[in-house]
Design brief:
Helix content is 31%, strand content 16%. By secondary structure, it is an alpha+beta fold. The chain is globular, with a radius of gyration of 25 Å.
């Protein structure tokens, strides 16, 4: 039986991804996007869209890796077009860029598809009736998805949004996705603690020495 009192996808993410790491990654991806635009904006208009896409890949990979490194999230080395990955607790971290609309390029990478297989373990938290008994996971894969407008003329220098997204095992849908800014606010929502302690005060009995007198 699924123990929804102790496990949820959001709960697992918050338990294993520190708030500072989420904030650092979000900031780093925006910085990488800005650097990419600066590197590509002077290119010939015919090259600019392609150049911008390539520059985003390189600069955002570098900034993502630095954010992982600064927060002890064990980044993989930068090597060619390899997917940059990190690890925080039981969470495998990676990233990709997409355009507004469906994230249809998410499955292009074999590495991303292989990483997503781990999320079979948490599918019962979303589709409990369709799966066998839930076992606490030892691996979860999470992507930071930077979404751009898709136009070189409309906010090309920054992502329109950055999401935290948990794919299903086949990377054909999403078990959870949320804007990173909204997710960060979850860390500040501290549940109220109900005080169940009802202290009782013991009445102290003062014994008077009959032989003593007040001073």
């Amino acid at each position: 039986m699924i123990n929804t009192k102790t496990d949820s996808i959001v709960g697992l993410l918050q338990r294993h991804i520190p708030r500072d790491l989420v904030m650092s990654i979000e900031d780093a991806l925006r910085v990488g996007a800005q650097r990419a635009y600066s590197a590509a904006k002077e290119m010939d208009v015919g090259h600019r869209p392609s150049a911008l896409g390539q520059m985003r890949h390189f600069h955002m990979n570098e900034s993502f890796q630095l954010a992982l490194l600064a927060n002890g999230a064990r980044p993989s080395p930068i090597r060619g077009n390899n997917v940059i990955t990190g690890r925080s607790g039981i969470i495998n971290l990676a990233r990709f860029n997409s355009s507004l609309g469906s994230w249809n390029n998410s499955r292009r990478s074999l590495t991303r598809r292989q990483m997503s297989l781990a999320n079979q373990a948490i599918a019962p938290l979303v589709f409990g009736d369709l799966f066998d008994e839930y076992e606490p996971p030892t691996d979860i894969t999470v992507f930071f998805v930077s979404t751009f407008s898709g136009s070189i003329l409309l906010e090309p220098e920054l992502p329109v949004s950055i999401h935290i997204a948990v794919p299903d095992a086949m990377m054909q849908g999403w078990l959870f996705k949320e804007d990173a800014q909204v997710f960060i606010q979850r860390y500040e929502q501290i549940p109220a603690q109900v005080d169940l302690v009802n202290p009782t005060l013991k009445t102290a009995k003062k014994q008077q020495n009959p032989d003593s007198s007040a001073s």
